[in-house]
Design a protein that fits this description.
Helix Hairpins, 3 domains, 17 helices, about 60% helix, 5-stranded mixed β-sheet, about 350 residues, Nucleotidyltransferase, domain 5
Length: about 350
């Protein structure tokens, strides 16, 4: 019969069936218990586990991290709750140890977690800024519609914030004023300028956060930045939660990050599966012909996945090799798919017939 090696939060045990044959209880100290819980969380083997495994033969384990100590079983480990009281442990000790583990983890968060928060803030800033500018454009358009139609977004905001009415803007630009808009009262102009100043400050804040993210990403993940650009690299980390999680994902998953809703809809209703998620923001994809985008996204996702692994696990500069490999794949894709595929008569353009519109 196999001897079972089981570890709980209060100790490690060898069981013969359901009977405890040998044990190594943990010290009744919160810090010691927390230390062992951290090791287990990191996938490390405890000294107590090694000691017990060395005493027996035909050891069977239930935890993947203990494969080196015995035969792995995908069954459920026996519960040893009755041993907790016998050994003098209390449930409150586990609660205190877990609280300590949480505090320790909080103090060890990597810089990529700041990137995640910065990207969330950047997304909110972008939405708010767009709403402010949209309202300003519609509002000011009643006074000077000709400027609204011709000026770039940032230029429009700056002109309104600095000069206000169309007379002052015309003098500043050195152009004669010709407009069919409604004149502004002093109160109207003051309100519009205040709104423009707010939109201007929001745009500057967004630019500052983008600069911060770019600089930090080039320090944190230079290979990934080289492959997809710093802002898109930060977006990928934001979607996965950390550089480590991104580095552990296969390229096929990286390719569809940000397209989860479309993927679930495809799985539920059929139709055409998504070819890319946020990677579509990269010029290589959104500038490519539609029939090349799927393969291009796959090549770019492969480069991003490899770069993330190198940045987290290797810390070496492999950017030139990764870019050269990507370039070769892109050249092959462009050569082999130079012309759009020929559709057979009656074929539903790559979609599942179930998703074809009903006549």
């Amino acid at each position: 019969m196999h001897m079972l090696l089981v570890t709980t939060w209060f100790g490690t045990f060898i069981l013969d069936g359901k009977q405890v044959q040998s044990s190594r209880p943990f010290p009744k100290d919160i810090k010691e218990i927390a230390e062992r819980l951290r090791k287990i969380d990191r996938g490390e083997v405890l000294d107590e586990e090694r000691q017990l495994a060395a005493e027996g033969k035909d050891i069977e384990v239930f935890d993947d991290r203990l494969r080196s100590l015995g035969k792995f079983s995908d069954g459920r480990a026996p519960a040893l709750d009755n041993m907790m009281g016998k050994l003098g442990f209390q449930a409150s000790m586990l609660h205190e140890a877990m609280m300590l583990v949480g505090h320790q983890k909080l103090g060890e968060l990597g810089p990529d977690r700041f990137i995640v928060q910065a990207m969330a803030g950047l997304e909110e800033l972008t939405k708010t800024s767009n709403l402010l500018i949209e309202r300003l454009t519609e509002w000011y358009g009643m006074h000077y519609p000709e400027l609204v139609e011709t000026a770039a977004q940032k230029e429009l905001v700056d002109l309104i914030a600095e000069h206000g009415g169309r007379e002052a803007i015309s003098r500043a630009q050195g152009k004669p004023m010709e407009s069919f808009g409604t004149p502004l009262s002093e109160e109207d102009e003051k309100a519009l300028r205040s709104w423009a100043v707010l939109a201007q400050a929001m745009m500057r804040t967004r630019e500052g956060i983008e600069g911060y993210v770019t600089k930090r990403m080039e320090q944190l993940a230079p290979n990934l930045c080289s492959a997809v650009g710093p802002l898109l690299a930060a977006r990928l980390i934001s979607l996965t939660g950390s550089l480590e999680r991104l580095g552990r994902l296969p390229a096929s998953t990286v390719q569809l990050l940000g397209a989860e809703k479309a993927l679930f809809q495809f799985m539920r209703e059929g139709g055409r599966p998504p070819k890319h998620g946020v990677l579509f923001q990269h010029p290589l994809i959104h500038r490519a012909p539609p029939w090349q985008r799927g393969k291009t996204a796959r090549a770019l996702a492969s480069a991003a996945a490899l770069a993330a692994r190198v940045d987290f696990f290797g810390k070496n500069d492999r950017s030139e090799l990764i870019k050269a490999t990507l370039q070769k794949k892109l050249e092959r894709i462009q050569k082999e798919n130079a012309a759009p595929p020929v559709r057979r008569p009656g074929e539903w353009q790559g979609r599942d017939r179930r998703s074809a519109p009903r006549r």
